[in-house]
Amino acid sequence: MSAEPLLDVQELEVRIRTGAGEVRPVAGVSFTVGRGEIVGVVGESGSGKTLTSLAVGALLPRNATAHAARLRFAGCDLLSASPRTLRRLLGTELAMVFQDPMSSLNPSRRIGAQMVEAVREHRGLSREEARRRAAGALADVRLTDPAARLRQYPHELSGGMRQRTMIAMGLMSEPSLIVADEPTTALDVTVQAQVVELLCELNERHGSAVLFISHNIALLSEVCDRILVMYRGRLVEDLTVAELLARPRHPYTRALVGAVPDLRTDRTRELATVPDDVDRLDREVADA
Amino acid sequence: MLELRGLRVTYPGPPPYTAVEGVDLDVAAGAAVGLVGESGSGKSSIARAIVGLARVSGGSVRVDGREAAAARRRRLQELRRTVQLVFQDPRASLNPRMQVGATVQEAVAIAGERRDARDRRAEARRLLELVDLPAGAAERYPHELSGGQLQRVAIARALAVRPRLLLLDEVTASLDVSVQARILNLLRRLQRELELSALYISHDLSVIRYVSDHVYVMQRGRIVEDGPCEALFSAPRREYTRSLLAAVPTLGGDRWRRRPAGAPAPAASANPND
Fold first, then answer.
1. How big is the CA angle at A97 (ends A91 and A102), to the nearest 5 degrees?
2. Are B180 and A219 in contact (CB < 8 Å)?
3. Which of A174, A198, A230 marks a domain boundary?
């Protein structure tokens, strides 16, 4: 086994061109994901967590560019790879699962046709073999009657079923990394539990690493080996769950932990809030 | 304060759909009551039925001991001053072309006590201050404010008619967690200071547990269990409630963890490139 991590991001910066000039919503972000590791990314809107994951998947919007000292995935340098290599690598080794499966599924095409497309393109499978694999993937994510599901349209499935279909689609190429961006945010808690259970099972069975992006630090603490905390475009803390529970160093991480009620929160006390004085917190971030 | 008996809400079809069936629910004066359930369980239909936005097809809604479901126009206006509903998405419920101060002033005018325009402006300012909005917020348009600030405006507007019961339907569901914490702290403070009754409606069990004294659990249009907050969360009687509670993530819980926290990830020898 090589010592190189599966994903190695050093000094990542995302630049976006706007009418008013260039902004840098992500800057100086460095982290790694080991093979088979489950790493969480927690942060609020505007923290840069989604842009970071899009940069890894080369899926940034047209007006945005990624810059980094190093951006390596599965032994390949993403910064210097040709578009063709990049497409093949990310098409086979990386699966992305988004919050709203409806926005990544084509509403006018049957599930089967959409699932088969990517593996046929990247793995060169026959139609029959690809469909067999698609049905197998749907069975893997525990959808009932997979063969019939392949003939259905996205709107015929519930939200939880659509999310499991997206995961199944990602799994067909047996990726080494699944990037899941708020995959359970729109789901009820019981369905959320099923989807998380599924991601963990796939991690265990296929050894796929997972980069799990969420605003829910409690959820991440139950799933991840390590958690990256993002705040205003920077990575402010990279800590194990044990460290998170003991005492996070960073004031923002502490505020985040205290702000979210769980089933043990003291009801007589106010919830912690992130200080209004963001500039002061910024200085603390710089000092931490 | 609020008393629902055998409430049924049926939406006209075809085919007609009964979203709420046989619901009994009470909110005592000054109490904080939680209504929790998964999407489609009928929670919002209850709130809408209380204020007359959904038609009550059976049972009764009593506010202050007086029947509200069959109220006529005049009585309905009075009811709306007593009970105010705040929604999940303030962007959808505030007029985008009005400065938020004017929106609150409009509600103050409806309350009817302030006849003078200057009086109404002052009252609107007081309300915006009450919900901790910075000075100057009154002159802003909705698109200039954040989601949390807009939700504060929506709360200020609801308070303008001096209601005694607030129905809060998923008011923090689309907010960031740190903003949610501020809004929950604010609502608890307002409830205390203004001696308001509140019915919190949410799919989030942790939020409901934090804000409520008494909790009702809903499933498929019916109440399946209710009880004092501590009792219901520590010793739920119904299997459905237990399954909901079991699905809530807890900081440091280990339901999904296959290896101890901090242990290294397994070496993936399955990788052919190694």
1. 110
2. no
3. A174
Question: B193: pLDDT confidence band, cut at 50, 70 and 90?
Answer: very high
Does residue A51 share a domain with residue A35? yes
Q: Does A270 touch chain B (CB under 8 A)?
A: yes
Q: CA of B210, closest CA in chain A: separation in Å?
A: 5
Q: Which domain does A134 fall in, by range?
A: 100-174
Backbone angles phi, psi at B85, to 5 degrees: -110, 130
Q: What is the DSSP string of A2-62?
A: -SS-SEEEEEEEEEEEETTEEEEEEEEEEEEE-TT-EEEEE--TTSSHHHHHHHHTT---T
Task: Indicate the residue of A196, A215, A241 with minimum beta-carbon distance to B177.
Answer: A215
From CA A153, how far away is CA B113, in angstroms rounded? Answer: 56
Tell me if residue A115 falls in helix, strand or coil: helix
Tell me if A214 is assigned to some domain. yes
Q: Does B206 touch chain A (CB under 8 A)?
A: yes
Question: pTM value?
Answer: 0.85
Domain end (from A174, A190, A213): A174
- pLDDT tens column, B225-245: 999 999 999 999 999 999 999
Residues A47 and A166 in one domain: no
> pLDDT exceeding 90 applies to what percent of chain B?
62
